[in-house]
Specification:
Layout: H1 4-40, H2 44-48
């Protein structure tokens, strides 16, 4: 709407937000899995290693 420059900036902003959201989701999922394994009381993490 305001020119190619701002369009590129908006596109980069969307890509940055999408990347940050994906990274945050992966980190949260890994943290939940670790907490779930610890809460289960079984040493499955040691078996995986």
């Amino acid at each position: 709407m305001f020119g190619n420059g701002l369009d590129i900036v908006a596109l980069l902003a969307w890509v940055a937000v999408a990347a940050a959201a994906a990274i945050a989701a992966v980190v949260l999922i890994k943290a939940i899995i670790r907490l779930w394994r610890r809460a289960s009381g079984r040493n499955r993490s040691d078996a995986d290693r």
